[in-house]
Amino acid sequence: MQITDLKIRKMMTEGRLRAIVSITLDQMLAVHDIKVVQGEERLFVAMPSRKDEAGVFRDVVHPISPEARSYLETQILDAYEKQLALQMAETEAETSAEGPL
Q1: How many Cβ atoms are within 10 Å of 63's Cβ, its own excluded?
Q2: pLDDT in tens, 35-56
């Protein structure tokens, strides 16, 4: 299983939710609404879920093995960190271009 496409759909700065991500696996299967969440100690990846009749959230899609979870999380968090760094660099460049007040 390889991630053949990864898109950061939306990034947020408020609250614990940091990003919404879509991935394509082996150019065959798309998984949408993967969340990057700021936990107590670190960022983590939450798979798409829905609320059942009892009000409990259940993953709709999830990796079976720890190795698969680690692979997905590493790839998604690396892409998120790169996008975040790019946004910060763009913000700094805009601020620098405006010059001192």
Answers
A1: 16
A2: 999 999 999 999 999 999 999 9
